[in-house]
Specification:
heterodimer, A: Immunoglobulin-like, Immunoglobulin-like, 3 domains, 26 strands, 11% helix, B: 219 residues, mainly alpha, Growth Hormone, Chain: A, cytokine (chain B)
Chain lengths: 374, 219
Protein backbone atom coordinates (compact mmCIF):
# COMPACT_ATOMS: atom_id res chain seq x y z
CA UNK A 1 0.00 0.00 0.00
CA UNK A 2 1.37 3.40 -0.88
CA UNK A 3 1.26 6.16 1.67
CA UNK A 4 0.72 9.88 1.68
CA UNK A 5 3.92 11.76 0.92
CA UNK A 6 3.34 14.28 3.69
CA UNK A 7 4.59 12.42 6.75
CA UNK A 8 5.93 9.08 7.89
CA UNK A 9 3.05 6.92 9.05
CA UNK A 10 4.42 6.45 12.56
CA UNK A 11 7.40 7.24 14.74
CA UNK A 12 9.15 4.73 16.99
CA UNK A 13 11.12 5.67 20.05
CA UNK A 14 13.89 4.92 20.71
CA UNK A 15 15.04 4.93 17.11
CA UNK A 16 18.01 2.61 16.45
CA UNK A 17 19.25 2.26 20.06
CA UNK A 18 22.38 0.46 21.16
CA UNK A 19 21.93 -1.84 24.18
CA UNK A 20 23.88 -4.22 26.37
CA UNK A 21 23.01 -7.92 26.27
CA UNK A 22 20.54 -8.71 29.04
CA UNK A 23 19.10 -5.23 29.24
CA UNK A 24 15.42 -4.37 28.93
CA UNK A 25 13.69 -1.92 26.67
CA UNK A 26 10.32 -0.21 26.41
CA UNK A 27 9.62 1.05 22.89
CA UNK A 28 6.71 3.21 21.76
CA UNK A 29 4.99 3.59 18.40
CA UNK A 30 3.07 6.80 17.79
CA UNK A 31 0.88 6.91 14.69
CA UNK A 32 0.62 10.09 12.68
CA UNK A 33 -2.80 11.76 13.00
CA UNK A 34 -3.22 11.61 9.18
CA UNK A 35 -3.65 7.88 9.41
CA UNK A 36 -6.70 7.53 11.59
CA UNK A 37 -5.34 4.53 13.40
CA UNK A 38 -5.71 3.88 17.09
CA UNK A 39 -3.39 2.18 19.54
CA UNK A 40 -5.50 -0.97 19.52
CA UNK A 41 -5.07 -1.25 15.74
CA UNK A 42 -1.33 -1.78 16.10
CA UNK A 43 0.98 -4.70 16.84
CA UNK A 44 4.72 -5.34 17.07
CA UNK A 45 7.12 -7.82 15.51
CA UNK A 46 10.77 -8.46 16.29
CA UNK A 47 12.81 -10.02 13.47
CA UNK A 48 9.58 -11.03 11.77
CA UNK A 49 7.99 -12.70 14.80
CA UNK A 50 4.92 -11.23 16.40
CA UNK A 51 5.43 -10.10 19.99
CA UNK A 52 2.82 -11.19 22.54
CA UNK A 53 0.00 -8.74 23.21
CA UNK A 54 0.63 -9.23 26.93
CA UNK A 55 3.75 -7.10 26.57
CA UNK A 56 1.85 -4.18 25.00
CA UNK A 57 0.42 -1.12 26.70
CA UNK A 58 -1.55 1.74 25.22
CA UNK A 59 0.06 4.96 26.39
CA UNK A 60 -2.36 7.24 24.58
CA UNK A 61 -5.00 7.05 21.85
CA UNK A 62 -2.38 6.72 19.10
CA UNK A 63 0.59 5.35 21.03
CA UNK A 64 1.30 1.68 21.73
CA UNK A 65 4.29 0.52 23.73
CA UNK A 66 6.00 -2.84 24.00
CA UNK A 67 8.25 -4.15 26.77
CA UNK A 68 11.24 -6.32 25.92
CA UNK A 69 13.25 -7.94 28.69
CA UNK A 70 16.58 -9.78 28.89
CA UNK A 71 17.57 -8.99 25.33
CA UNK A 72 19.88 -11.51 23.62
CA UNK A 73 22.67 -10.45 21.31
CA UNK A 74 21.45 -9.16 17.93
CA UNK A 75 20.47 -11.82 15.43
CA UNK A 76 22.36 -9.97 12.69
CA UNK A 77 25.00 -7.28 12.80
CA UNK A 78 22.73 -4.90 10.88
CA UNK A 79 20.51 -4.78 13.97
CA UNK A 80 17.36 -6.56 15.13
CA UNK A 81 14.27 -5.35 13.30
CA UNK A 82 11.61 -4.08 15.69
CA UNK A 83 8.58 -3.14 13.61
CA UNK A 84 5.27 -1.43 14.36
CA UNK A 85 2.42 -2.73 12.18
CA UNK A 86 -1.13 -1.76 11.47
CA UNK A 87 -3.77 -4.43 11.93
CA UNK A 88 -3.65 -5.56 8.28
CA UNK A 89 0.07 -6.27 8.54
CA UNK A 90 1.28 -3.08 6.86
CA UNK A 91 4.56 -1.63 8.11
CA UNK A 92 4.18 1.76 9.78
CA UNK A 93 7.69 2.21 11.21
CA UNK A 94 10.71 0.28 12.35
CA UNK A 95 13.70 0.58 14.63
CA UNK A 96 16.99 -1.33 14.50
CA UNK A 97 18.17 -2.66 17.87
CA UNK A 98 21.90 -3.14 18.30
CA UNK A 99 22.38 -5.53 21.22
CA UNK A 100 25.82 -6.73 22.19
CA UNK A 101 28.79 -6.19 24.44
CA UNK A 102 31.70 -3.81 24.33
CA UNK A 103 34.82 -5.48 22.94
CA UNK A 104 37.48 -7.01 25.16
CA UNK A 105 41.17 -7.05 24.47
CA UNK A 106 41.85 -9.03 21.29
CA UNK A 107 44.01 -12.05 22.17
CA UNK A 108 46.32 -14.65 20.68
CA UNK A 109 48.09 -12.39 18.23
CA UNK A 110 50.30 -14.56 16.04
CA UNK A 111 52.31 -13.33 13.08
CA UNK A 112 54.37 -14.86 10.35
CA UNK A 113 56.44 -13.53 7.49
CA UNK A 114 56.45 -15.26 4.14
CA UNK A 115 60.00 -15.28 2.85
CA UNK A 116 60.93 -12.23 4.94
CA UNK A 117 59.07 -9.91 2.60
CA UNK A 118 55.82 -9.29 4.42
CA UNK A 119 54.01 -9.87 7.69
CA UNK A 120 50.62 -11.43 8.27
CA UNK A 121 49.05 -11.40 11.72
CA UNK A 122 45.93 -12.97 13.09
CA UNK A 123 44.16 -12.62 16.40
CA UNK A 124 40.99 -13.70 18.17
CA UNK A 125 38.19 -11.45 19.48
CA UNK A 126 38.30 -10.96 23.22
CA UNK A 127 34.73 -12.11 23.77
CA UNK A 128 31.90 -13.68 21.84
CA UNK A 129 29.64 -10.79 22.83
CA UNK A 130 31.37 -8.43 20.48
CA UNK A 131 30.46 -10.56 17.49
CA UNK A 132 26.81 -9.54 17.76
CA UNK A 133 27.73 -6.02 16.80
CA UNK A 134 29.91 -4.88 13.99
CA UNK A 135 33.29 -4.61 15.69
CA UNK A 136 36.09 -2.87 13.89
CA UNK A 137 39.60 -4.21 14.34
CA UNK A 138 42.67 -2.18 13.54
CA UNK A 139 46.12 -3.73 13.58
CA UNK A 140 48.85 -1.28 14.40
CA UNK A 141 52.60 -1.63 14.46
CA UNK A 142 55.64 0.44 15.06
CA UNK A 143 59.37 -0.06 15.31
CA UNK A 144 60.25 -0.31 18.96
CA UNK A 145 62.92 2.34 18.88
CA UNK A 146 61.10 4.85 16.66
CA UNK A 147 57.90 6.64 17.51
CA UNK A 148 55.62 6.44 14.49
CA UNK A 149 52.49 4.23 14.59
CA UNK A 150 51.54 2.51 11.37
CA UNK A 151 48.15 1.04 10.51
CA UNK A 152 47.69 -2.20 8.63
CA UNK A 153 45.41 -1.82 5.60
CA UNK A 154 44.77 -5.25 4.07
CA UNK A 155 42.36 -7.16 6.27
CA UNK A 156 40.84 -10.66 6.12
CA UNK A 157 43.74 -12.16 4.16
CA UNK A 158 43.97 -15.21 6.44
CA UNK A 159 40.53 -15.43 7.96
CA UNK A 160 38.17 -12.81 9.42
CA UNK A 161 40.59 -11.61 12.10
CA UNK A 162 43.76 -11.08 10.16
CA UNK A 163 45.74 -8.41 8.42
CA UNK A 164 48.58 -8.34 5.94
CA UNK A 165 51.45 -5.85 5.82
CA UNK A 166 52.93 -6.22 2.35
CA UNK A 167 56.12 -4.18 2.44
CA UNK A 168 58.52 -1.71 4.04
CA UNK A 169 59.44 -3.99 6.90
CA UNK A 170 62.77 -3.76 8.62
CA UNK A 171 64.79 -6.79 9.67
CA UNK A 172 67.04 -7.32 12.69
CA UNK A 173 64.98 -4.91 14.74
CA UNK A 174 61.96 -5.43 17.00
CA UNK A 175 58.45 -4.34 16.14
CA UNK A 176 55.60 -3.65 18.52
CA UNK A 177 52.29 -4.96 17.28
CA UNK A 178 48.82 -4.58 18.76
CA UNK A 179 45.16 -4.70 17.77
CA UNK A 180 42.47 -2.17 18.64
CA UNK A 181 38.85 -3.25 18.69
CA UNK A 182 35.93 -0.85 18.71
CA UNK A 183 32.18 -1.08 18.36
CA UNK A 184 29.14 0.95 19.32
CA UNK A 185 29.55 0.03 22.96
CA UNK A 186 33.24 0.68 23.51
CA UNK A 187 36.88 0.23 22.68
CA UNK A 188 39.57 -2.25 23.75
CA UNK A 189 43.26 -2.55 22.98
CA UNK A 190 45.21 -5.80 23.04
CA UNK A 191 48.50 -6.33 24.78
CA UNK A 192 51.52 -5.40 22.74
CA UNK A 193 53.40 -8.20 21.03
CA UNK A 194 57.05 -7.65 20.27
CA UNK A 195 58.83 -9.51 17.53
CA UNK A 196 61.62 -9.36 15.00
CA UNK A 197 60.57 -10.32 11.49
CA UNK A 198 63.48 -12.75 11.30
CA UNK A 199 62.04 -14.77 14.15
CA UNK A 200 58.76 -15.55 12.44
CA UNK A 201 59.84 -16.48 8.97
CA UNK A 202 58.14 -19.23 7.05
CA UNK A 203 58.49 -20.37 3.48
CA UNK A 204 56.39 -21.88 0.77
CA UNK A 205 56.20 -25.66 0.98
CA UNK A 206 59.05 -27.50 -0.74
CA UNK A 207 58.33 -27.77 -4.45
CA UNK A 208 58.81 -30.71 -6.81
CA UNK A 209 58.00 -33.45 -4.35
CA UNK A 210 58.50 -36.82 -6.07
CA UNK A 211 57.84 -40.19 -4.53
CA UNK A 212 59.12 -43.25 -6.31
CA UNK A 213 59.77 -46.91 -5.74
CA UNK A 214 63.16 -48.19 -4.82
CA UNK A 215 63.73 -50.81 -7.45
CA UNK A 216 61.67 -53.85 -6.54
CA UNK A 217 61.91 -53.31 -2.81
CA UNK A 218 58.36 -53.75 -1.66
CA UNK A 219 58.60 -51.98 1.69
CA UNK A 220 60.33 -48.78 0.69
CA UNK A 221 59.65 -45.59 -1.16
CA UNK A 222 62.06 -42.82 -2.03
CA UNK A 223 60.99 -39.19 -1.52
CA UNK A 224 62.76 -36.31 -3.23
CA UNK A 225 62.04 -32.57 -3.21
CA UNK A 226 63.64 -29.19 -3.84
CA UNK A 227 64.35 -26.52 -1.32
CA UNK A 228 61.99 -23.52 -1.54
CA UNK A 229 63.47 -21.15 -4.11
CA UNK A 230 62.52 -17.89 -2.42
CA UNK A 231 65.06 -18.26 0.32
CA UNK A 232 68.01 -18.87 -1.97
CA UNK A 233 69.11 -15.31 -1.42
CA UNK A 234 69.99 -15.43 2.19
CA UNK A 235 71.87 -17.71 4.48
CA UNK A 236 69.61 -20.15 6.17
CA UNK A 237 69.39 -23.77 6.94
CA UNK A 238 66.25 -25.64 6.27
CA UNK A 239 64.95 -28.57 8.17
CA UNK A 240 62.25 -30.73 6.74
CA UNK A 241 59.56 -33.00 7.99
CA UNK A 242 57.75 -35.70 6.08
CA UNK A 243 54.40 -37.14 6.86
CA UNK A 244 52.86 -40.10 5.13
CA UNK A 245 49.83 -42.31 5.44
CA UNK A 246 48.24 -45.27 3.71
CA UNK A 247 45.51 -44.43 1.27
CA UNK A 248 42.59 -45.53 3.40
CA UNK A 249 43.77 -44.26 6.74
CA UNK A 250 43.63 -40.79 8.21
CA UNK A 251 46.55 -41.38 10.54
CA UNK A 252 49.71 -39.64 9.43
CA UNK A 253 53.13 -40.93 10.38
CA UNK A 254 55.66 -38.17 10.82
CA UNK A 255 59.32 -38.46 10.00
CA UNK A 256 61.12 -35.90 12.08
CA UNK A 257 64.80 -36.40 11.63
CA UNK A 258 65.09 -35.52 7.99
CA UNK A 259 67.58 -32.79 8.65
CA UNK A 260 68.40 -30.59 5.71
CA UNK A 261 68.64 -33.27 3.03
CA UNK A 262 66.30 -33.02 0.10
CA UNK A 263 65.64 -36.70 -0.13
CA UNK A 264 64.61 -39.46 2.19
CA UNK A 265 63.90 -43.16 2.09
CA UNK A 266 60.76 -44.40 3.77
CA UNK A 267 61.04 -47.97 4.97
CA UNK A 268 59.02 -50.51 6.84
CA UNK A 269 56.10 -49.94 4.52
CA UNK A 270 53.45 -52.40 3.47
CA UNK A 271 53.89 -53.97 0.06
CA UNK A 272 51.36 -53.28 -2.66
CA UNK A 273 49.96 -50.27 -0.85
CA UNK A 274 49.27 -46.73 -1.97
CA UNK A 275 50.86 -44.08 0.23
CA UNK A 276 50.30 -40.33 0.36
CA UNK A 277 53.33 -38.24 1.23
CA UNK A 278 53.74 -34.58 2.19
CA UNK A 279 56.80 -32.51 2.99
CA UNK A 280 57.18 -29.23 4.82
CA UNK A 281 60.04 -26.91 5.55
CA UNK A 282 61.23 -24.84 8.48
CA UNK A 283 63.82 -22.18 7.72
CA UNK A 284 66.09 -21.82 10.70
CA UNK A 285 69.38 -20.22 11.37
CA UNK A 286 68.40 -17.25 9.27
CA UNK A 287 71.47 -15.12 8.89
CA UNK A 288 73.17 -17.20 11.50
CA UNK A 289 70.55 -16.90 14.23
CA UNK A 290 69.94 -20.02 16.30
CA UNK A 291 66.18 -19.72 16.32
CA UNK A 292 63.78 -21.92 14.44
CA UNK A 293 61.38 -20.30 12.01
CA UNK A 294 57.80 -21.30 11.42
CA UNK A 295 56.90 -24.53 9.63
CA UNK A 296 55.53 -23.99 6.13
CA UNK A 297 52.29 -25.53 4.98
CA UNK A 298 52.52 -29.16 3.91
CA UNK A 299 53.15 -29.67 0.21
CA UNK A 300 50.27 -31.07 -1.79
CA UNK A 301 50.07 -34.82 -1.18
CA UNK A 302 51.99 -36.96 -3.63
CA UNK A 303 50.98 -40.56 -4.06
CA UNK A 304 52.95 -43.64 -4.89
CA UNK A 305 52.57 -47.35 -4.30
CA UNK A 306 54.95 -49.96 -3.04
CA UNK A 307 55.47 -52.95 -5.32
CA UNK A 308 53.20 -55.85 -4.66
CA UNK A 309 54.88 -58.95 -3.31
CA UNK A 310 55.29 -61.25 -6.32
CA UNK A 311 55.43 -64.42 -4.32
CA UNK A 312 52.32 -66.52 -4.12
CA UNK A 313 52.17 -69.64 -1.98
CA UNK A 314 53.92 -71.78 -4.51
CA UNK A 315 56.36 -69.07 -5.55
CA UNK A 316 56.48 -67.77 -9.09
CA UNK A 317 59.65 -65.85 -8.61
CA UNK A 318 61.52 -65.95 -11.92
CA UNK A 319 64.82 -65.71 -10.09
CA UNK A 320 64.35 -69.10 -8.61
CA UNK A 321 61.89 -70.85 -6.41
CA UNK A 322 64.14 -71.40 -3.43
CA UNK A 323 63.74 -67.96 -1.86
CA UNK A 324 61.24 -68.98 0.73
CA UNK A 325 63.73 -70.87 2.80
CA UNK A 326 63.16 -70.64 6.51
CA UNK A 327 66.43 -68.82 6.98
CA UNK A 328 65.51 -66.06 4.62
CA UNK A 329 62.09 -65.69 6.11
CA UNK A 330 63.46 -65.31 9.59
CA UNK A 331 66.09 -62.88 8.48
CA UNK A 332 63.49 -60.86 6.63
CA UNK A 333 61.27 -60.71 9.68
CA UNK A 334 64.18 -59.65 11.83
CA UNK A 335 65.14 -56.85 9.51
CA UNK A 336 61.53 -55.81 9.14
CA UNK A 337 61.30 -55.54 12.90
CA UNK A 338 64.51 -53.50 13.00
CA UNK A 339 63.18 -51.20 10.34
CA UNK A 340 59.85 -50.68 12.06
CA UNK A 341 61.37 -49.75 15.32
CA UNK A 342 64.13 -47.63 13.98
CA UNK A 343 62.53 -46.28 10.86
CA UNK A 344 63.49 -42.92 9.55
CA UNK A 345 66.21 -41.81 7.31
CA UNK A 346 69.16 -43.38 9.01
CA UNK A 347 71.25 -43.94 5.98
CA UNK A 348 73.64 -46.42 7.50
CA UNK A 349 70.88 -48.85 8.38
CA UNK A 350 69.32 -48.69 4.96
CA UNK A 351 72.54 -49.08 3.06
CA UNK A 352 73.40 -52.12 5.05
CA UNK A 353 69.94 -53.55 4.53
CA UNK A 354 70.09 -52.93 0.80
CA UNK A 355 73.46 -54.53 0.56
CA UNK A 356 72.16 -57.53 2.40
CA UNK A 357 69.14 -57.84 0.10
CA UNK A 358 71.22 -57.53 -3.02
CA UNK A 359 73.62 -60.10 -1.66
CA UNK A 360 70.69 -62.35 -0.84
CA UNK A 361 69.26 -62.16 -4.32
CA UNK A 362 72.64 -62.74 -5.89
CA UNK A 363 73.30 -65.68 -3.65
CA UNK A 364 69.94 -67.24 -4.51
CA UNK A 365 70.68 -66.80 -8.18
CA UNK A 366 74.05 -68.52 -7.92
CA UNK A 367 72.59 -71.17 -5.68
CA UNK A 368 69.99 -72.02 -8.23
CA UNK A 369 72.40 -71.92 -11.08
CA UNK A 370 75.09 -73.90 -9.46
CA UNK A 371 73.07 -75.80 -6.96
CA UNK A 372 75.40 -75.15 -4.09
CA UNK A 373 74.97 -73.53 -0.72
CA UNK A 374 76.43 -69.95 -0.53
CA UNK B 1 31.86 -28.95 -55.30
CA UNK B 2 28.65 -26.90 -55.32
CA UNK B 3 29.54 -24.81 -52.30
CA UNK B 4 32.76 -23.70 -53.91
CA UNK B 5 30.92 -22.62 -56.96
CA UNK B 6 28.45 -20.53 -54.96
CA UNK B 7 31.27 -19.04 -52.95
CA UNK B 8 33.18 -18.03 -56.08
CA UNK B 9 30.03 -16.52 -57.54
CA UNK B 10 29.42 -14.51 -54.35
CA UNK B 11 32.99 -13.28 -54.34
CA UNK B 12 32.68 -12.20 -57.96
CA UNK B 13 29.39 -10.50 -57.21
CA UNK B 14 30.89 -8.71 -54.20
CA UNK B 15 33.82 -7.47 -56.20
CA UNK B 16 31.48 -6.05 -58.78
CA UNK B 17 29.27 -4.27 -56.29
CA UNK B 18 29.80 -0.55 -55.95
CA UNK B 19 30.77 0.50 -52.43
CA UNK B 20 27.74 0.30 -50.15
CA UNK B 21 26.70 3.71 -48.95
CA UNK B 22 25.15 4.54 -45.54
CA UNK B 23 24.87 1.35 -43.49
CA UNK B 24 27.98 -0.60 -44.44
CA UNK B 25 28.86 -4.08 -43.27
CA UNK B 26 31.42 -3.23 -40.60
CA UNK B 27 29.01 -1.06 -38.60
CA UNK B 28 26.35 -3.73 -38.52
CA UNK B 29 28.90 -6.33 -37.50
CA UNK B 30 29.80 -4.13 -34.53
CA UNK B 31 26.21 -3.51 -33.43
CA UNK B 32 25.17 -7.15 -33.62
CA UNK B 33 28.05 -8.28 -31.49
CA UNK B 34 27.61 -5.40 -29.05
CA UNK B 35 23.98 -6.29 -28.53
CA UNK B 36 24.76 -9.95 -28.03
CA UNK B 37 27.42 -9.09 -25.45
CA UNK B 38 25.08 -6.74 -23.66
CA UNK B 39 22.40 -9.38 -23.59
CA UNK B 40 24.84 -11.94 -22.18
CA UNK B 41 26.05 -9.46 -19.57
CA UNK B 42 22.47 -8.74 -18.52
CA UNK B 43 21.79 -12.44 -18.00
CA UNK B 44 25.06 -12.83 -16.08
CA UNK B 45 24.14 -9.93 -13.81
CA UNK B 46 20.68 -11.39 -13.24
CA UNK B 47 22.32 -14.59 -12.07
CA UNK B 48 24.85 -12.77 -9.87
CA UNK B 49 22.17 -10.63 -8.35
CA UNK B 50 20.25 -13.65 -7.10
CA UNK B 51 23.18 -14.65 -4.91
CA UNK B 52 24.04 -11.11 -3.91
CA UNK B 53 20.47 -10.23 -2.99
CA UNK B 54 20.08 -13.43 -1.00
CA UNK B 55 23.19 -12.69 1.02
CA UNK B 56 22.35 -9.04 1.51
CA UNK B 57 18.78 -9.67 2.61
CA UNK B 58 20.00 -12.26 5.12
CA UNK B 59 22.31 -9.57 6.42
CA UNK B 60 19.35 -7.21 6.83
CA UNK B 61 17.59 -9.97 8.72
CA UNK B 62 13.92 -11.01 8.90
CA UNK B 63 11.44 -9.84 7.71
CA UNK B 64 13.57 -8.48 4.81
CA UNK B 65 14.67 -11.95 3.73
CA UNK B 66 11.20 -13.46 3.89
CA UNK B 67 9.87 -14.47 0.46
CA UNK B 68 6.60 -12.54 0.58
CA UNK B 69 8.01 -9.38 2.10
CA UNK B 70 6.46 -6.32 0.47
CA UNK B 71 6.99 -3.12 2.45
CA UNK B 72 5.48 0.21 1.49
CA UNK B 73 7.43 2.48 -0.80
CA UNK B 74 7.60 5.43 1.54
CA UNK B 75 7.68 8.09 -1.14
CA UNK B 76 10.15 10.66 0.08
CA UNK B 77 12.35 11.92 -2.71
CA UNK B 78 12.11 9.70 -5.78
CA UNK B 79 15.29 7.74 -5.42
CA UNK B 80 15.74 4.48 -7.18
CA UNK B 81 14.50 4.43 -10.78
CA UNK B 82 11.39 2.33 -10.78
CA UNK B 83 11.23 -0.57 -13.19
CA UNK B 84 7.46 -0.62 -13.07
CA UNK B 85 6.16 0.89 -16.27
CA UNK B 86 3.21 0.45 -18.55
CA UNK B 87 4.41 -2.38 -20.79
CA UNK B 88 2.61 -1.09 -23.89
CA UNK B 89 4.12 2.34 -23.35
CA UNK B 90 7.52 0.75 -22.97
CA UNK B 91 7.21 -1.32 -26.13
CA UNK B 92 5.99 1.73 -28.02
CA UNK B 93 9.23 3.61 -27.39
CA UNK B 94 11.83 3.85 -30.11
CA UNK B 95 14.96 1.74 -29.72
CA UNK B 96 16.88 4.91 -29.02
CA UNK B 97 14.54 5.99 -26.23
CA UNK B 98 14.49 2.54 -24.67
CA UNK B 99 18.27 2.22 -24.76
CA UNK B 100 18.63 5.71 -23.27
CA UNK B 101 16.24 4.81 -20.44
CA UNK B 102 18.26 1.66 -19.72
CA UNK B 103 21.50 3.62 -19.76
CA UNK B 104 20.20 6.26 -17.36
CA UNK B 105 18.61 3.75 -15.02
CA UNK B 106 21.69 1.56 -14.66
CA UNK B 107 23.96 4.56 -14.17
CA UNK B 108 21.85 5.66 -11.22
CA UNK B 109 21.43 2.14 -9.87
CA UNK B 110 25.21 1.78 -9.96
CA UNK B 111 25.64 4.91 -7.85
CA UNK B 112 23.19 3.67 -5.23
CA UNK B 113 24.77 0.23 -5.18
CA UNK B 114 28.18 1.71 -4.60
CA UNK B 115 26.81 3.69 -1.66
CA UNK B 116 25.39 0.45 -0.26
CA UNK B 117 28.88 -0.63 0.63
CA UNK B 118 28.46 1.06 3.96
CA UNK B 119 30.66 0.88 6.99
CA UNK B 120 28.71 -1.85 8.67
CA UNK B 121 28.41 -4.55 6.02
CA UNK B 122 30.53 -7.68 6.41
CA UNK B 123 33.76 -8.24 4.49
CA UNK B 124 32.17 -10.98 2.39
CA UNK B 125 29.29 -8.69 1.40
CA UNK B 126 31.63 -5.84 0.53
CA UNK B 127 33.58 -8.20 -1.67
CA UNK B 128 30.47 -9.46 -3.48
CA UNK B 129 29.10 -5.96 -3.88
CA UNK B 130 32.40 -4.74 -5.29
CA UNK B 131 32.43 -7.51 -7.85
CA UNK B 132 28.83 -6.87 -8.82
CA UNK B 133 29.41 -3.13 -9.19
CA UNK B 134 32.30 -3.78 -11.57
CA UNK B 135 30.08 -5.97 -13.70
CA UNK B 136 27.27 -3.41 -13.59
CA UNK B 137 29.73 -0.72 -14.66
CA UNK B 138 30.52 -3.00 -17.58
CA UNK B 139 26.84 -3.11 -18.48
CA UNK B 140 26.55 0.68 -18.51
CA UNK B 141 29.54 0.88 -20.85
CA UNK B 142 28.18 -1.93 -22.97
CA UNK B 143 24.87 -0.12 -23.46
CA UNK B 144 26.80 3.01 -24.43
CA UNK B 145 28.66 0.89 -26.96
CA UNK B 146 25.44 -0.42 -28.47
CA UNK B 147 23.99 3.08 -28.73
CA UNK B 148 27.13 4.36 -30.40
CA UNK B 149 27.32 1.47 -32.86
CA UNK B 150 23.70 2.09 -33.86
CA UNK B 151 24.43 5.76 -34.33
CA UNK B 152 22.44 7.02 -31.34
CA UNK B 153 23.74 9.85 -29.16
CA UNK B 154 24.46 9.10 -25.51
CA UNK B 155 22.02 10.68 -23.04
CA UNK B 156 23.46 13.92 -21.69
CA UNK B 157 23.23 15.18 -18.13
CA UNK B 158 24.49 13.79 -14.85
CA UNK B 159 24.76 10.03 -14.94
CA UNK B 160 24.26 9.80 -11.21
CA UNK B 161 21.24 10.48 -9.07
CA UNK B 162 20.01 14.06 -8.86
CA UNK B 163 21.27 14.38 -5.31
CA UNK B 164 24.26 12.38 -4.05
CA UNK B 165 23.08 9.39 -2.03
CA UNK B 166 24.67 10.69 1.16
CA UNK B 167 22.71 13.90 1.56
CA UNK B 168 19.29 12.58 0.62
CA UNK B 169 19.96 9.51 2.73
CA UNK B 170 17.43 7.71 4.86
CA UNK B 171 16.77 9.47 8.19
CA UNK B 172 17.10 6.26 10.21
CA UNK B 173 18.62 2.80 9.95
CA UNK B 174 15.33 0.99 9.46
CA UNK B 175 14.30 3.22 6.57
CA UNK B 176 17.74 2.69 5.07
CA UNK B 177 17.13 -1.07 5.20
CA UNK B 178 13.85 -0.52 3.34
CA UNK B 179 15.65 1.59 0.73
CA UNK B 180 18.25 -1.17 0.30
CA UNK B 181 15.50 -3.73 -0.12
CA UNK B 182 13.81 -1.71 -2.85
CA UNK B 183 17.09 -0.98 -4.61
CA UNK B 184 17.75 -4.70 -4.99
CA UNK B 185 14.17 -5.38 -6.00
CA UNK B 186 14.16 -2.70 -8.70
CA UNK B 187 17.53 -3.84 -9.96
CA UNK B 188 16.14 -7.35 -10.35
CA UNK B 189 13.19 -6.11 -12.36
CA UNK B 190 15.32 -3.85 -14.55
CA UNK B 191 17.69 -6.69 -15.43
CA UNK B 192 14.81 -9.04 -16.17
CA UNK B 193 13.22 -6.54 -18.52
CA UNK B 194 16.48 -5.43 -20.14
CA UNK B 195 17.22 -9.01 -21.11
CA UNK B 196 13.98 -9.03 -23.06
CA UNK B 197 14.77 -5.63 -24.61
CA UNK B 198 18.18 -6.75 -25.82
CA UNK B 199 16.86 -10.05 -27.06
CA UNK B 200 14.30 -8.21 -29.18
CA UNK B 201 16.91 -5.72 -30.38
CA UNK B 202 19.22 -8.58 -31.31
CA UNK B 203 16.60 -9.91 -33.71
CA UNK B 204 16.14 -6.53 -35.35
CA UNK B 205 19.85 -6.22 -36.07
CA UNK B 206 20.78 -9.47 -37.79
CA UNK B 207 24.21 -11.09 -37.52
CA UNK B 208 26.29 -9.18 -40.02
CA UNK B 209 28.60 -11.66 -41.70
CA UNK B 210 26.52 -12.25 -44.80
CA UNK B 211 24.41 -9.11 -44.67
CA UNK B 212 25.08 -8.14 -48.23
CA UNK B 213 21.71 -6.62 -48.94
CA UNK B 214 21.70 -8.56 -52.19
CA UNK B 215 17.88 -8.59 -52.15
CA UNK B 216 17.79 -4.79 -52.15
CA UNK B 217 20.03 -4.74 -55.17
CA UNK B 218 17.84 -7.09 -57.11
CA UNK B 219 20.29 -10.04 -57.13
Amino acid sequence: PFVSPAADPAVISPQDPTLLIGSSLVATCTVSPDFHLKAEDLYWTLNGRRLPAASYAALGPTTLSVALAHLNGSKQQSGDNLVCHSRDGGILAGSCLYVGLPPEKPVNITCWSKNMKDLTCKWAPGTEGETFLHTNYTLKYKLRWYGRDNTCQEYHTAGPYSCHIPKDLALFTPYEIWVEASNRLGVAVSDVVMLDILDVVTTDPPPDVHVSRVGDLEDQLSVRWSSPPALKDFLFQAKYQIQYRVEDSSEWKVVDDVGNQTSCRLAGLRPGTVYFVQVRCNPFGIYGSKKAGIWSDWSNPTAASTPRSERAAGGCDPKGGEQNTTLRRELKQFFGWVKKHAYGCSNLGIKLYDQWRVWLQKSHKTRNQVGKEP
Amino acid sequence: GDSWGIFTFLCAALCNLPALPALNCTEELGAGQSIQKTYDLTRYLEHQLRTLAGTYLNYLGPPFNEPDFNPPRLARVERVPSATVDLDLWRGLTDNARLAANYRAYSRLLCYLRALDGQAATAELRHRLGHFCSSLQGLVLSIAGVMSSLGYPLPVGPAGPSAPPGTAGAPNDFLKKMDDFWLLKELQTWLWRSAKDFNRLKKKVPPAVVTLRLEARGF
